[in-house]
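[Automated response] Your request has been received and processed.

Submitted sequence:
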Amino acid sequence: MTEHRTSIDIDAPPERVFEFLVTDAGMTSWMGQWASLDPVPGGQFAVDIAGYPARGTFLEVDPPRRVTVSWGFAGSEALPPGSSTVSFELTPISTGTRVEVLHTDLPAEQVPGHVDGWDHFLPRLARAAAGEQLPPDTWTPAP
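Generated structure:
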């Protein structure tokens, strides 16, 4: 198992960015076409992304500083629901918020696809949280 760490600076306060991680409308504005989120420890985390059903539970919800979810895909043997962990750490900076993402417990063969996904979706989070209305997402995982 391995991990992927990345970060992005967002021109919005942590309180605003946090809402994009814990609400259905917030989440689908930057990632996925459908979401059902219950942002309490043990609550459901479900987001459909490019036809892939990401499923897990909220492990930690600390407004507006941190959100941690278990992560995997329904029907996947390589990365089943809840088999990896994604943490979003929000830190106030002079220009808004630094969001650090740590995705752990990834099988090595899953890392490139998740790196590609996070590289695509985090700039969308930054744009959405800064107030931009984004077009529907057309990203698909690299083959």
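Summary generated for your ticket: The mean pLDDT is 96. The radius of gyration is 14 Å.
If you did not submit this request, please reply to this message.
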